Amino acid sequence: MIEPQLVQLLTPEGERVYDDVYETSLTAEQIFAMYRDMVIIRRLCNEATSLQRQGQLALWAPLQGQEAAQIGAGRALEPSDFSFPSYREHGIAWCRGIPPELSLRLFRAVDHGGWDPQKYRHSVPTIVIGNQALNAVGYAMGVQRDGASEAVITFFGDGATSQGDVNEAFVWASSFDAPVVFFVQNNQWAISEPTIRQTKIPLYKRAQGFGFPGIRVDGNDVLAVYEVTRKALAHAREGGGPTLIEAFTYRMGAHTTSDDPTRYRVDAEVEAWKHRDPIERVKAYLVRAHKVSAKKFAAVNDEADEMALKLRVDVLAMGKPDPLSIFDHAYASEHPLISEGRRDMEELGVGGAS
Amino acid sequence: MSSQQFLLPDVGEGLTEAEIVVWKVNVGDTVTLNQPLIDIETAKATVELPSPYAGVVMKLHGNVGDVVEVGKPLIDIEVAGAASEPETVAPATPAPASEPAVRTAVLVGYGVSEDAGTPTRQHRRRGSTAPSPAGVATVAMNVAPTTSSPALAPRSTPPVRLYAKRHGVDISTLSGTGRDGLITRSDVDKALSPGSGVAVQSAPPTSTRFVGHELASWESGPKEERIVVRGVLKSMAEAMVRSAFTAPHAAAWVRFDATRSVELLASLKSRPSLDGVRITPLTLIAMALCDAARHYPGINSSFDDEHGEVIVRRSVNLGIAADTPRGLIVPNIRGADTLNIVSMANALSTLVQKARAGTTTPNEMMHTTLTITNVGPFGIDGAMPILPPGTSVILAVGQIAKAPWVVDDEVVVRQVMEIALSFDHRLIDGALASRALRHVADFLGDPAAALLAG
Q1: Which of A203, B26, B112, B430 has a Cα at 20 to 30 A from A351?
Q2: Would you call A267 and B46 a contact, using CB atoms and an 8 Å cutoff?
Q3: pLDDT-derived band of residue B15, with 50, 70 and 90 as boundaries?
């Protein structure tokens, strides 16, 4: 299933392999830190799924299987870089320092975003498929005009590559050499539509037609994702223009908590991908190559469990939002129609947080 | 101590109700936070609900097959400890003022249409793509409800996962005894051991279950009782009516000497290399029917009325009629014709485990090509089953029992068995059905030779 021309530094069994272009610069401590990140976000995701099943979240978009793609890319970012996510990038949010409970505010329907994008240099989740690619290119063109040496990255799924927005973003980024990295997590399924029905060539090859480099990386190999993303971001900062990275991965769970994947895909496929689990692979490598002790792994599990418990407490304690907050972030500055709407609502006596 | 009530949440963006598929806990059980409590089927998906509280189960609101409205009580749990514990934090309730008086099901992502009225059963079903469990008129295995709770994502290691897969064990049906519930190799071995309760040929228990309900006794029940036709019962009823009034049914049956099958099974049982593999009469019958399909592909076919075509398939998805707490379901084994006897035995064990645990997925009930219904365990000689829609034959298997039999003009005691084949006479005639049935009987009459020849 995994094709050649795929950058890989760690096999599914956790063996180090070598690539002509990419070599890992990471120390054992840094790799272990990424392992910790992946365990924590998987736990976060499991807890969020449980909270949804218990009626505490309206919806949840799970990321199981995509931990390496997100942590590898998220850790490759410099603090000054700016990222534009879809609604599944809980791992990127974690890497950007966003407290886990903030990632759940949107899904509890108490917030339209969850955090201050400027503070974390991470935009709010975009539900409209692929729209964030255009936002990212616009932002990158702004960076370019400011003469800043920052890179911009945007995340979307394989399904989004069929959207007009993403293709328009490719055209603009290419024409203006915008400092942007397009990071597509090809998790093989756009809800129930397989990638093979959306594209006749591997997705990374599409970049060539738009006039910029495309590369496919083993999305379940955190070392490879990290190195490939770092290089693409550096290329953007140095004025080299955009890159398309296709992280070849798999959505182990449902599209969202409203979806039942057993209705459209076979167990055998899921089983095959279980053997390529991104967390097990880096764990095997750490045990074998760096003799990391069982105690250290256990400590990470305990830390993840504690995080999950705190997350639950924080979510259950979230109050109801002030209905008037709906007007707060529609525009950057005051807008006459929005102001009128707010005044009318106030006169009706709506408002006040609980 | 305080009693907490878990209300049925809207798990799918605008649902109004859900059907109880299986309870995974009983009254009196101690449950931990996030322990699976119940599977429910909504118009969108079958989902497992984890416990929002740690405590003791006090009451279950509703039985398997009942439809519960969103927001109505599902389970009461007595929670121990102080209110500061995380699981006792009062859940934020949705603003009631903004809720419409009547909830209307939202099955696509664009909300409720302006003129949407009170939700009806048709509304609910229109969005559902769950296949109706292809039913048959008779029942096969007795699969009892289980109280073990498969974890949301079973934790194990890649080598153990591979080991389990090679032996046909679905690790989602196991509970781990390793650290933090990790599923270990010995857990898999335990599941494979003969005493693990994978009872394909178990004795029939006295059951008062009927159409997915526990019936009150003759003395205590009302004189007349009405039960709403829904869920698995409804699917079975619709499938049977569709089949009975489209396919003209005919049947053939045969009695034969199955002594050599019984002897082969006994000798396989004592082979150390087959330790943990449950090879039963049903395993041999499954092998025999697949072999018959290979020799007579005509039986592995279906009549496509819409296109005026007969579809012949050269791959067997072998359906097994299973009597579950929910009612009759027919999960199938994909590509059964490619399996050897050990893989077939393991596939049957997995199929039964899943049916019993209620974890059979809709996918596993689709595209059946051949079906076996086993009435033997009930002490019955034979049956004439109705075809599952979309298939052309179904094999009914009776008990194996000692009976007088004529061998070389002498009456001797032999292990005798009866099998029957119902078939769709639009495309299968008596000659084909008889030949195929005779093939199955001959296979079982000398299974060792047939397996070697196969």
Answers
A1: B112
A2: no
A3: confident
pLDDT band at B208 (very low <50, low <70, confident <90, very high): low
pTM: 0.59
Q: Quick check: helix, strand or coil at residue A165?
A: helix
Chain B contact for A312 (CB, 8 A cutoff): yes
Chain B residues inside the 8 Å CB shell of A52:
11
Q: Are residues B196 and B240 in the same domain?
A: no
- Tell me the C-alpha distance between B62 and B369, whole Å: 36
Q: Average the pLDDT over B248-252 and give the result.
A: 93
Which string of DSSP letters, residue by residue, matches A257-316?
A: TT--GGGTS-HHHHHHHHTT-HHHHHHHHHHHHH---HHHHHHHHHHHHHHHHHHHHHHH
User: How many domains does chain B divide into?
Assistant: 3
| Same domain, yes or no: B280 and B415 | yes
Q: Are residues B369 and B259 in the same domain?
A: yes
Widest Cα–Cα separation across chain B: 87
Does pLDDT of B138 surpass 50? no
Candidate from A118-132, A288-302, B86-100 with smallest mean pLDDT: B86-100
The vertex-A41 CA angle with A40 and A46, nearest 5°, equals: 100
Same domain, B323 and B181: no
Q: Please give the Cα distance from A197 to B355 (Å, whole number).
A: 33
Alpha helices (H) in B384-446, listed in sequence order: 430-445
Do residues B178 and B287 share a domain?
A: no
Task: Say yes or no: B148 contacts chain A, CB-CB below 8 A.
Answer: no
| Chain B residue with the nearest C-alpha to that of A12 | B158
Distance from CA of A38 to the nearest CA of B (A): 16
Sketch out chain A's domains with CATH numbers: 28-319 (3.40.50.970), 323-354 (no CATH)
Q: What are phi and psi of B164, to 5 degrees?
A: -65, -40
Q: How far is A263 from chain B (nearest CA, A)?
A: 6
Q: Which helix (H) or strand (E) element contains residue A169?
A: helix A164-176
Domain annotation covers residue B398 = yes
Same domain membership, residue B404 and residue B346: yes
Same domain assignment for residues B409 and B336: yes
Write down the ipTM of this complex.
0.79
Residue type, B39: D
Give the residue from B8, B89, B334 with the most A CB atoms within 10 Å of its CB, the best one to mutate: B89
CB A66 within 8 A of CB A45: no
- Comparing CB atoms, the residue among B9, B129, B158 nearest residue A263 is B129
Q: Is B425 among the residues known to form the active site?
A: yes
In terms of domains, do B261 and B409 share one?
yes
State both tokens at A58.
């309206």
Region B211-216 average pLDDT: 74
pLDDT score of B157: 79
What residue has token string 């509970």? B175
Query: Which segments of A98-173 are extended strands (E)?
Result: 152-157
CATH number at residue B400: 3.30.559.10
A120 DSSP 8-state letter: H
Q: What does the block give as tokens for A200?
A: 């006749």
